[in-house]
């Protein structure tokens, strides 16, 4: 093999990747056939990694107050300013806010510095928005934060229940493994529990489109049903009677009413679950991101404990992690209510960690959880915050308030890889971190598998590893000996040793066998699942196989659950539920996936999915812009009418931010309502109102090079190579479009070709036969062939006919491919529709003809729905 074996930096599936630097400087990316998580598969985001490695927009040197400084100045300054704040206001006045995308080594050092040496536990992380409820659920049930399952269990199961998890888009390779297992064993059943019909429903035998936030009612009903069917229960469980008592009233009829489901669907699900020994329940943010998310996790675990579907191949409650190292963060103690290595703040644990670290200053109680942390910044109790590897101005609830808090904070330090993010734009100090491909360390995926991320690119500019930056600051704060790290392997060994320190099986997280790896062995470390206690090669596929838990009595606990609906229920002023989540081809706040033009094609603009019922009620046509408002903010996005959406609910992506759109940060609308046990925000159920936004004009603007957005009420940026592309709209049209354009951009020496018609204005600006700008305006949504315009910018038109085609916004051949469906091979909706018309009647045949769906498979659900739509319309035509 040539190339570097490493791990994908996106989702918690943790796929192995081989990165191969080519002679021309490009990096070819393929799936690692030997990595147990993916066995060579990749999704479209992983496959496009090579397109996100350029240095455009990167933060390449330290900056203070907007000016470049040397590392010496930056590190001395940070250490001195943090020291001064601590001296004056105490350790509780500083805070770290980290990320499940930091490597374990980075995370370990940040946690050690904050909790061990600064002596405050104000070290929280974006995992608070993501996995906090799942952690509470596992700890309450098992006495420790343990995910008992492996991916293999999903393939071995006879019933897979996906709850609040759109795996087809968010965990595509796990989804592919599921879909392929079901293809091999069609008797395997899949149930999807999600208020809306998602791409994941493509493999579902049963979809339960339940009322938002009502899952605990469903699982309480299941628990009652299981007890009635004589579920085994057992001696090794505690809390059974109380849990059953709490579930007693949850008859199928009661569940159907509470969850607004057809009772037959409810009993079908109960029956399947009760009748199937090998059942995996895979759950994610539809469960965790709730004001009662912890209880929902326990309601799911309760059902597995009572039925005995746990601790054996093919079964278990499987909380799938989002970020590449969400699990590693939990291991090092990255959350403010954990100390380190799965230890908390009991006096013995504080003492133990203190002895291990050689510090007498170890924090003795939990710190501020994310939402409270940013409140404390707002109120001035926290006077210095260091944000690493996360973008809270976009991802935290009540996001405008978070931005305001940072603007008022005396010291905001941001470690990032990009110069401009919505959060970096609020920083006093910017520290340039190494990005994926440049940094070295380990990550742990959803199935507890530790894998190496390896560097295969040189460090650009003056960027440095996060662990190095942290250690340098720690040394300058006077904690030198404890932070004398020279290599990430050294940090990893220390972390592994801490996990085994005074651990005779009381703590499940134990990787002591890895504490003696040499640098070279760490370099070569093969993926391994923790616990790793005997030898470095011997991992553990499943936990809880002997029915013993980590509670003092050794028993697993069922928890009595009282279902709660989302805290903010719709009312007269805000009658709709706002659901938020992920799209297939973007990663979070788009700082990396947003660089790849290929990943922009599938969903080029921020949007709102709504049911036809809402479209009719609010007078919204496909392609209209809509304004969604909540008490705390508003957003302006494109309407997408979807019969699979739940009536009364809207769905918006969580990704867009000020770097990509004027007003589309979903979290401005999310209230900072949290779960009382986990502190996790209710990011999936806000209440909002909807209005059609009366655009007087809409437009698309293409400009050669990097250009800022023009002055218009609505803009959204699309990524294209070598040019800037904006989709625009406004409430008032300027009198003179050319004047509007040339006032805003220095288009010296550019001559314009124009076309005007009924409610339409097109202009292309030329300089020396090269298109420099192209503007297309209409009184409705602009329809043009974007690919043709991109092509004309890349290869300037040679003939008058080609120039006229550009002015018309189409290719000289006049065919457009429509919306991209398959990003891997750039196959659009029109070509697929044409192939179907010509007789392709399966995904396989489409693949043979057009290649679509044959690489990562992410688009297969959509190919199927196009096939279905077309065959339905053919049938209709025949019937008509
Ligand atoms: N493409 C892509 N993949 C990603 C990410 C990304 O940014 N982009 N991010 C990664 C991260 S960090 C995470 S945490 C994961 C998240 O992975 P998922 O949790 O699967 O993704 P989401 O889209 O946030 O939400 C999942 C589903 O929850 C549903 N939902 C909303 N309310 C309810 C409810 O009340 N009950 C139920 N049962 N369902 C509900 C939504 O309709 C949505 O379809 O994805 C990871 N993978
Ligand atoms: N409404 C709503 N809000 C949500 C969610 C939702 O479903 N709905 N989901 C929540 C969830 S589950 C999550 S996980 C969060 C994610 O939200 P964030 O963590 O805020 O999003 P990212 O874009 O992943 O932010 C990572 C940042 O780190 C930078 N970065 C990348 N690599 C490195 C590195 O090696 N070192 C450093 N120092 N920086 C690096 C990136 O450029 C980027 O700015 O959003 C949460 N917010
Ligand atoms: S499923 Fe896709 S995003 Fe997730 S780790 Fe694998 S390749 Fe990366
Ligand atoms: Mo997440």
From TrEMBL:
- Residues passing through the membrane, by range: none
Q: Which Pfam families match?
A: Fer2_BFD, Molybdop_Fe4S4, Molybdopterin, Molydop_binding
Q: Is Protein biosynthesis among this UniProt entry's keywords?
A: no
Gene Ontology biological-process annotations: cellular respiration; nitrate assimilation
Looking up InterPro entries in the UniProt record yields:
Asp_de-COase-like_dom_sf (IPR009010), BFD-like_2Fe2S-bd_dom (IPR007419), BFD-like_2Fe2S-bd_dom_sf (IPR041854), CT_Nitrate-R-NapA-like (IPR041957), MoPterin_dinucl-bd_dom (IPR006657), Mopterin_OxRdtase (IPR006656), Mopterin_OxRdtase_4Fe-4S_dom (IPR006963), MopterinOxRdtase_cofactor_BS (IPR027467)
User: What cofactors does this protein use?
Assistant: Mo-bis(molybdopterin guanine dinucleotide); [4Fe-4S] cluster
User: What terms describe the molecular function in GO for this protein?
Assistant: 4 iron, 4 sulfur cluster binding; metal ion binding; molybdopterin cofactor binding; oxidoreductase activity
Which stretches make up the 4Fe-4S Mo/W bis-MGD-type domain? Answer: 1-57
Which UniProt keywords are present, listed alphabetically?
4Fe-4S, Iron, Iron-sulfur, Metal-binding, Molybdenum, Nitrate assimilation, Oxidoreductase
Q: Name one GO cellular component term.
A: oxidoreductase complex
Family, according to the entry, reads as follows: Belongs to the prokaryotic molybdopterin-containing oxidoreductase family. NasA/NapA/NarB subfamily.
What name appears for this protein in its UniProt entry?
A: Molybdopterin oxidoreductase
Q: Which organism is it from?
A: Musicola paradisiaca (strain Ech703)
- Write the lineage as a comma-separated list: Bacteria, Pseudomonadati, Pseudomonadota, Gammaproteobacteria, Enterobacterales
């Amino acid at each position: 093999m040539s190339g570097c074996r490493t791990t994908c930096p996106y989702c918690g599936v943790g796929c192995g990747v081989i990165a191969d630097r080519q002679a021309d400087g490009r990096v070819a990316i393929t799936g690692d056939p030997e990595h147990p998580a993916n066995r060579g598969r990749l999704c479209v985001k992983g496959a496009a990694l090579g397109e996100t490695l350029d240095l455009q927009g990167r933060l390449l040197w330290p900056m203070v107050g907007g000016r470049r400084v040397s590392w010496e100045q930056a590190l001395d300054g940070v250490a001195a300013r943090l020291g001064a704040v601590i001296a004056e206001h105490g350790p509780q006045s500083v805070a770290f806010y980290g990320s499940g995308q930091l490597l374990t080594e980075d995370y370990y050092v940040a946690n050690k510095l904050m909790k061990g040496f600064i002596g405050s536990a104000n070290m929280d992380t974006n995992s608070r928005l993501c996995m906090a409820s799942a952690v509470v659920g596992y700890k309450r049930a098992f006495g420790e934060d343990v995910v008992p399952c492996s991916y293999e269990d999903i393939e071995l199961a006879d019933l897979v229940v996906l709850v609040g998890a759109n795996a087809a888009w968010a965990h595509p390779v796990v989804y592919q493994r599921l879909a392929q297992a079901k293809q091999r064993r069609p008797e395997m059943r899949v149930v999807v529990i999600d208020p809306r019909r998602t791409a994941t429903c493509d493999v579902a035998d049963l979809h339960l489109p339940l009322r938002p936030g009502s899952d605990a009612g469903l699982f309480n009903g299941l628990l009652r049903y299981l007890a009635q069917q004589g579920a085994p229960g057992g001696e090794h469980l505690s809390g059974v009677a109380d849990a059953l008592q709490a579930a007693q009233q949850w008859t199928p009829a009661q569940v159907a009413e509470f969850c607004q489901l057809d009772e037959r669907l409810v009993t079908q699900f109960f029956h399947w679950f009760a009748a199937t020994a090998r059942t995996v329940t895979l759950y994610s943010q539809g469960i965790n991101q709730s004001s009662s998310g912890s209880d929902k996790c326990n309601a799911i675990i309760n059902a597995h404990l009572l039925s005995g579907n746990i601790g054996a191949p093919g079964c278990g409650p499987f909380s799938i992690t989002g970020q590449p190292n969400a699990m590693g963060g939990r291991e090092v103690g990255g959350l403010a209510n954990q100390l380190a290595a799965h230890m908390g703040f009991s006096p013995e644990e504080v003492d133990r960690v203190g002895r291990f670290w050689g510090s007498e200053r170890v924090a003795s109680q939990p710190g501020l959880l994310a939402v409270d942390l940013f409140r404390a910044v707002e109120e001035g109790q926290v006077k210095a915050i260091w944000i690493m590897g996360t973008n809270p101005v976009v991802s935290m609830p009540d996001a405008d308030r978070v931005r305001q808090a940072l603007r008022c904070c005396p010291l905001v330090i941001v470690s990032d890889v990009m110069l401009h993010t919505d959060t970096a734009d609020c920083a006093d100090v910017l520290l340039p971190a190494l990005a994926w491909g440049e940094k070295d360390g380990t990550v742990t995926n959803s199935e507890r598998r530790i894998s190496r991320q390896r560097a295969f690119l040189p460090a650009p500019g003056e960027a440095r590893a996060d662990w190095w930056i942290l250690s340098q600051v720690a040394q300058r704060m006077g904690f030198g000996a404890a932070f004398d790290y020279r290599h990430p392997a050294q940090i990893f060994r220390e972390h592994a040793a801490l996990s085994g320190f005074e651990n005779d099986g009381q703590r499940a997280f134990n990787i002591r066998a890895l504490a003696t790896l040499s640098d070279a062995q760490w370099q070569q470390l093969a993926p391994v699942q923790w616990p790793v206690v005997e030898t470095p090669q011997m991992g553990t596929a499943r936990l809880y196989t002997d029915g013993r838990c980590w509670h003092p009595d050794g028993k697993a606990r069922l928890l009595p659950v009282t279902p709660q609906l989302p805290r903010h229920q719709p009312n007269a002023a805000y009658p709709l539920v706002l659901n938020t989540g992920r799209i297939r081809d973007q990663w979070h706040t788009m700082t990396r996936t947003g660089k790849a033009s290929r990943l922009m094609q599938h969903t080029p603009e921020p949007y709102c999915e709504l049911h036809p019922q809402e479209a009719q009620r609010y007078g919204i046509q496909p392609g209209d812009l809509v304004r969604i408002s909540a008490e705390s903010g508003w957003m302006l996005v494109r309407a997408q009418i979807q019969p699979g959406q739940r009536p009364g609910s809207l769905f918006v992506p969580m990704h867009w931010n000020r770097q990509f759109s004027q007003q589309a940060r979903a979290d401005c609308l999310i209230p900072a309502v949290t779960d009382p046990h986990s502190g996790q925000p209710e990011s999936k159920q806000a209440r909002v109102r909807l209005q059609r936004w009366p655009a007087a004009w809409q437009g698309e603007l293409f400009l050669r090079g990097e250009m800022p957005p023009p002055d218009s009420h609505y803009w959204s940026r699309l990524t294209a190579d070598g040019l800037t592309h904006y989709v625009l709209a406004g409430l008032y049209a300027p009198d003179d479009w050319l004047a509007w354009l040339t006032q805003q951009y220095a288009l010296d020496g550019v001559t314009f070709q124009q076309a005007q018609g009924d409610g339409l204005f097109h202009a292309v600006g030329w300089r020396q036969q090269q298109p420099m700008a192209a503007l297309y305006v209409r009184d409705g949504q602009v329809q043009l062939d974007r690919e043709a315009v991109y092509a004309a910018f890349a290869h300037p038109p040679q003939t008058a006919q080609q120039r006229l085609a550009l002015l018309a916004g189409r290719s000289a051949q006049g065919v457009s491919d429509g919306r991209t469906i398959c990003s891997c091979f750039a196959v659009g909706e029109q070509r697929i529709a044409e192939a179907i018309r010509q007789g392709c009647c399966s995904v396989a045949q489409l693949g043979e003809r057009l290649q679509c769906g044959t690489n990562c498979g992410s688009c297969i659900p959509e190919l199927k729905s196009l096939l279905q739509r077309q065959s339905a319309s053919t049938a209709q035509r025949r019937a008509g």
